[in-house]
Amino acid sequence: MKELFGHLKDGRRVDAITLTAGDLSVTILSYGAILNDVRLRGVPYGLTLGGSEIAAYEHGPMEYFGAIVGPVANRISGARAELDGRELGFEANEGETLLHGGPQGLHTELWKIAALSATSVTLTLTLPDGKGGFPGNRLITARYTVEAPATLRLELTATTDAPTLLNLANHSYWNLDGTATTDGHWLQVFADRYTPVDGRMIPTGVLDVSGTGFDLSEGHVLRPSDAQRYDHNFCLADGPGKMKPAAILRGTSGVTLRMNTTEPGLQVFDAAPIGSGEMNGHRGVPEVGFCGVALEAQRWPDAPNRSDFPSVRLDPEDTYQQETRWSFSKK
Description:
CATH class: Mainly Beta
Number of domains: 1
Number of strands: 27
Low-confidence stretches: none
Order of helices and strands: EEEEEEEEEEEEEEEEEEEEEEEEEEE
Shape: globular
Distance between the termini: 29 Å
Radius of gyration: 18 Å
Helix content: under 10%
Strand content: 35-45%
Mean pLDDT: 97
Largest sheet: 9 strands, antiparallel
């Protein structure tokens, strides 16, 4: 089902597409390819954070909530990178750092609805050479599919006509209890390594999680009162291309989310500094710090400047491919 969600400041129409199969119903926006809402039968609240007004998303406080971020998700240090001997410069939007593709990132784009059925929608986006500082004319496709009994699948593909950098991610915040914060949620991440960061949130290398606050391999209860904060990349067991478990998130209500992905990294962000300002979320009130947990399947941060990290280079003869699955259940 497709219906009007709102209009951008320049008058362009934004559609909301609702997909349903089995016990799961999700709403996708044509703006930002945003995963706006996720509903599980028998649960009286949404499982992902979002809003009902386009103003919350269009350069607003929820601009990343549920969006596809890129062309290069996460951070690029110094807002610069080298590609085939050419230095690429970007418009920094986090101090001296490029975050999620910058102020012209994919989260600000109006995507085209290329195909639509009761259970699936395919969105496409064409990016011209040089936009945001990235080379190549690029075609990006995002396909969301709902499958019974309660699985959401996201397939991302991209092509380019010139060597470029590409690393896409879905930036949904999850809260499985319908509460103000994720206090009491249990999180397990299937990783034995992570990338520590400096004061600019740029990775400094790769470390074993053993003996650290980043060891989530057996599961850990999240508490806003804990000293340990999370805005870090976890290195998943296998490299790009192989479907594998990434994380399990369980709320105190008994709702469980299992996440699988083909990506080699999972950025875990506890949303400690995140809120929705004066804009209401799905609960009818503004979102506050620790409102959700972002689980972002992607390549590793600052990969364009780290030859030892999985590459984010995309050449004309190749096709970028990513698949992520979220499966929901309730006791």
